């Protein structure tokens, strides 16, 4: 048996206090081990050197010690810790890659702190994980019990979306999503609903032509290959309860089109899942929350959901 390994993220944020709360909530349900500097972690922990030693350690949060160069001051990131944050992520990938852990769950990082302190060259967690895994293309999924969404384009300005939204990108995104729904979520024949780019999905070309020129041909080709796929649909009618019952995942054309519905439905419990990696990675869908760090009020709901989902996916993939 292998546990879920939890990387500490930015030690000046809420991650470390949330780790304790999540452990208390999931004790006996999800075996987990935190990777962090012992000097940064408040409260009782059990230091271990092998992730598999977590089993039977239910009295205190299991900890794999990883030394950092700076202090952990709530709300104030120390640039000396940047390299430690990066190294912990890499260590987590090494553990899951060699089979010492079932899955990786990552607590929030602060990208500016990493860039300032260690010249971090990646836009965020996801791109760094893809580079560590040697994978060119990964997909971001946001998931909660009521909804799964995947944005095709992510952190770009809305004016850049039409040019970025290409046929190869759409095909790769849908294909990776389809495979993950089968392998990691146990859905034998996934039903995927695809949103249009324009209002009313272009309304026959009167409000934009991308649906006719690119999206519809892609969906027709994938359907002919055997995928259960529908769309392009009007995004303003895709997310009410009756519509959601008709699909297992919604693929959206840009960031807010995907994230607004899921954050409206479950603001505190959403999980960020990276699809297309050779290992399982989940993360809470929130940031470092420096404004409340150290006050003991951070909500662990999303981290609890992320750890639980990682463990469930590990069961489906057979990495436990």
TrEMBL record:
<feature type="binding site">
    <location>
        <position position="272"/>
    </location>
    <ligand>
        <name>substrate</name>
    </ligand>
</feature>
<comment type="function">
    <text>Catalyzes the NAD(P)-dependent oxidation of 4-(phosphooxy)-L-threonine (HTP) into 2-amino-3-oxo-4-(phosphooxy)butyric acid which spontaneously decarboxylates to form 3-amino-2-oxopropyl phosphate (AHAP).</text>
</comment>
<keyword id="KW-0862">Zinc</keyword>
<dbReference type="GO" id="GO:0008615">
    <property type="term" value="P:pyridoxine biosynthetic process"/>
</dbReference>
<feature type="binding site">
    <location>
        <position position="200"/>
    </location>
    <ligand>
        <name>a divalent metal cation</name>
    </ligand>
</feature>
<feature type="binding site">
    <location>
        <position position="263"/>
    </location>
    <ligand>
        <name>substrate</name>
    </ligand>
</feature>
<dbReference type="GO" id="GO:0051287">
    <property type="term" value="F:NAD binding"/>
</dbReference>
<dbReference type="GO" id="GO:0050570">
    <property type="term" value="F:4-hydroxythreonine-4-phosphate dehydrogenase activity"/>
</dbReference>
<comment type="subunit">
    <text>Homodimer.</text>
</comment>
<feature type="binding site">
    <location>
        <position position="155"/>
    </location>
    <ligand>
        <name>a divalent metal cation</name>
    </ligand>
</feature>
<keyword id="KW-0460">Magnesium</keyword>
<dbReference type="InterPro" id="IPR037510">
    <property type="entry name" value="PdxA"/>
</dbReference>
<comment type="similarity">
    <text>Belongs to the PdxA family.</text>
</comment>
<feature type="binding site">
    <location>
        <position position="125"/>
    </location>
    <ligand>
        <name>substrate</name>
    </ligand>
</feature>
<keyword id="KW-0479">Metal-binding</keyword>
<dbReference type="GO" id="GO:0050897">
    <property type="term" value="F:cobalt ion binding"/>
</dbReference>
<keyword id="KW-0963">Cytoplasm</keyword>
<dbReference type="GO" id="GO:0042823">
    <property type="term" value="P:pyridoxal phosphate biosynthetic process"/>
</dbReference>
<keyword id="KW-0170">Cobalt</keyword>
<dbReference type="GO" id="GO:0008270">
    <property type="term" value="F:zinc ion binding"/>
</dbReference>
<keyword id="KW-0560">Oxidoreductase</keyword>
<dbReference type="Pfam" id="PF04166">
    <property type="entry name" value="PdxA"/>
</dbReference>
<feature type="binding site">
    <location>
        <position position="255"/>
    </location>
    <ligand>
        <name>a divalent metal cation</name>
    </ligand>
</feature>
<protein>
    <recommendedName>
        <fullName>4-hydroxythreonine-4-phosphate dehydrogenase</fullName>
        <ecNumber>1.1.1.262</ecNumber>
    </recommendedName>
</protein>
<comment type="pathway">
    <text>Cofactor biosynthesis; pyridoxine 5'-phosphate biosynthesis; pyridoxine 5'-phosphate from D-erythrose 4-phosphate: step 4/5.</text>
</comment>
<keyword id="KW-0664">Pyridoxine biosynthesis</keyword>
<keyword id="KW-0520">NAD</keyword>
<feature type="binding site">
    <location>
        <position position="281"/>
    </location>
    <ligand>
        <name>substrate</name>
    </ligand>
</feature>
<keyword id="KW-0521">NADP</keyword>
<dbReference type="GO" id="GO:0000287">
    <property type="term" value="F:magnesium ion binding"/>
</dbReference>
<dbReference type="GO" id="GO:0005737">
    <property type="term" value="C:cytoplasm"/>
</dbReference>
<dbReference type="InterPro" id="IPR005255">
    <property type="entry name" value="PdxA_fam"/>
</dbReference>
<feature type="binding site">
    <location>
        <position position="126"/>
    </location>
    <ligand>
        <name>substrate</name>
    </ligand>
</feature>
């Amino acid at each position: 048996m292998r546990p879920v390994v939890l990387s500490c993220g930015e030690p000046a944020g809420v991650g470390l206090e949330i780790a304790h709360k999540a452990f208390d909530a999931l004790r006996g349900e999800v075996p987990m081990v935190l990777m962090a500097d012992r000097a940064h972690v408040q409260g009782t922990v059990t230091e271990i050197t092998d992730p598999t030693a977590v089993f039977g350690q239910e009295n205190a949060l299991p900890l794999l010690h990883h030394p950092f160069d700076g202090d952990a001051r709530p709300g104030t990131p120390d640039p000396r810790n940047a390299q430690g944050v990066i190294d912990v992520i890499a260590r987590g990938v090494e553990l899951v890659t060699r089979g010492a852990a079932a899955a990786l769950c990552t607590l929030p990082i602060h990208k500016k702190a990493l860039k300032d302190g260690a010249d971090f060259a990646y836009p965020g967690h996801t791109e760094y994980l893809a580079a560590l895994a040697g994978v060119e293309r990964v997909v971001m999924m946001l998931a909660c019990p009521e909804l799964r969404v995947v944005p095709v384009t992510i952190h770009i300005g809305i004016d850049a979306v039409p040019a970025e939204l290409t046929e190869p990108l759409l095909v790769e995104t849908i294909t990776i999503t389809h495979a993950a729904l089968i392998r990691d979520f146990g859905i034998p024949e996934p039903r995927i609903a695809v949103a249009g780019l324009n209002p009313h999905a272009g309304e026959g070309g009167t409000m934009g032509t991308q649906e006719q020129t690119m999206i519809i041909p892609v969906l027709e080709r994938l359907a002919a290959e055997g995928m259960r796929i529908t769309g392009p649909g009007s995004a303003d009618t895709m997310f009410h309860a009756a519509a959601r019952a008709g699909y297992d995942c919604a693929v959206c054309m840009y960031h807010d089109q995907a994230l607004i519905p899921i954050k409206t439905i479950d603001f505190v419990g959403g999980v960020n899942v990276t699809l297309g990696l050779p290992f399982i990675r989940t993360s809470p869908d929130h940031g470092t929350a420096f404004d409340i760090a150290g006050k003991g009020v951070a909500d662990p709901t999303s981290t609890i959901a992320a750890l639980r989902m990682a463990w469930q996916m590990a069961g489906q993939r057979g990495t436990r």
